[in-house]
Amino acid sequence: MIEVGDSDAIGQASLTLMKIQIIAAGRPALAYAKLGVDEYLKRLGRYGAYGMEVVKSGTREEVSARLLERSRGSFRIALDERGEMLSTRIFAERLDALALCGEIKLLSFLIGGSDGHSVELRESCEMVLSLSPLTMQHELALVVLLEQLYRVETLRSGSPYHRD
Q: Rounded to an integer, what is the distance from CA 141 to the centroid of its chain?
C-alpha cells in the first residue's frame, strides 16, 4: 500500500521526476480510441515524460508475459476491474507520494487485452488499480487512464479543468 505523506509536500511533488509509461496490448483500432489517445498524449506532453508502448495481442498469458517483460525494473500498476478504486484527488496524492519517495524513476501502467491480466501479472505489480467497477473494453480503459493522468496534471498545476 502506498502511503500518502505530508499533505503540504504533496502539492509540490513533481511527477516529472518519474518517467510514466503506459504499456497496452494492441494498438487502438477504434476511431474514437485513436483520437482520444492521440489527444491526451499530446496534452500530457506539456507536463513531463509520458510515453506509450504497445505489445502484441495474444492470449492472456502471452500478453501478461510481454507486459511484465516490457515493464521490468519499473514500479508497476496493473489496470484491472478487481483493483482498488480511487477518486481523482486520491489518485493524484498516490502519484505525488511515489514521486516524493525519490526511488521510483519509471512508473508503468499495464493494460491487458480483452481477456485481462494473468494472476501472475497482478501479483507481480506493486499496485492494481480499477478505473470502474464496470468491465470496460481495453481501448476505452486506455483513453480513460490517459484522461485521468491529464486531470491529475491539471489538478496539480491549479488549472480549472478538474472540478470536485
A: 10
* Cα 149 to chain centroid, rounded: 7
3-state class (DSSP) for residue 120: helix
Query: What are the residue boundaries of the structural domains of the chain, listed by start?
Result: 7-157
139 C-beta neighbours (distance < 10 Å), count? 22
Alpha-carbon dihedral 36, 163, 18, 97, rounded to 10 degrees: -140
Contact indicator for 128, 122 with CB cutoff of 8 Å = yes
C-alpha cell at 107: 512508473
Q: How far apart are CA 50 and CA 22, in angstroms?
A: 8
Give the pTM: 0.88
The C-alpha atoms of residue 85 and residue 4 are separated, in whole angstroms, by 16
> Which triple of cell numbers denotes residue 148?
485521468
In contact, 79 and 109? CB cutoff 8 Å: yes
Per-residue pLDDT reduced to its tens digit, 120-164:
999 999 999 999 998 888 899 999 999 999 999 999 888 888 787
At 95, which helix (H) or strand (E)?
helix 88-101
Q: Which fold has domain 7-157?
A: Alpha/beta knot (3.40.1280)
